[in-house]
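fyi for ur records
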Amino acid sequence: MSNIATDGAPLAGSPLTRAVLEIDDYASGLGWDQPARLFALVDTAQLRTQEPGLADQLGLGADETTAGALTPIEQDELPAGTPLDEFLATIAWPEVIAGCALTVERLMLPPSAETAIPEGLDDASLASWVAAHPERQEVRMTVAVLRDGARESAVRLRAKDSPTEVLTGSELVPGLAEALTATFEG
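which gave:
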């Protein structure tokens, strides 16, 4: 899980972790009950060199082009009413994109409650059952992947909405990481 820096914010070791935490912080500033948001991740130094106007517009100074640094660029809003897995299956990134990230809010149950899930529920019924469960937790998950297979995640509980309570790790949301990785295949 994440390390804690002296100012209370998680300490980010890798450029991918820093990008995930930057997106989590951005999403946190927008508040809860937000739609899913998709981001392209680009190499900051490459962006500064190849698209200086865009880099200036994004506020990326020359001091922000450290080796391996990634800049998240929010994409157009996801289409309403389209299941996330179906939408992700339609994405193909150009070669200039180093990776991608998605932030999404979901209801989750603790492992102890998962054994009580009734069998045979369709997706809508399962969602209703989870939404009514007294142990449900609202979470915001930010998951990022790179073309080379690296992945990172940040998970924030609504009940503990603080930068010091953000969990990070590469295997926190494996299914979503795999779906994002698939956007670079093919």
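The beta strands are 3-4, 10-11, 37-43, 70-74, 99-108, 137-146, 151-157, 167-169. thats all i got for now
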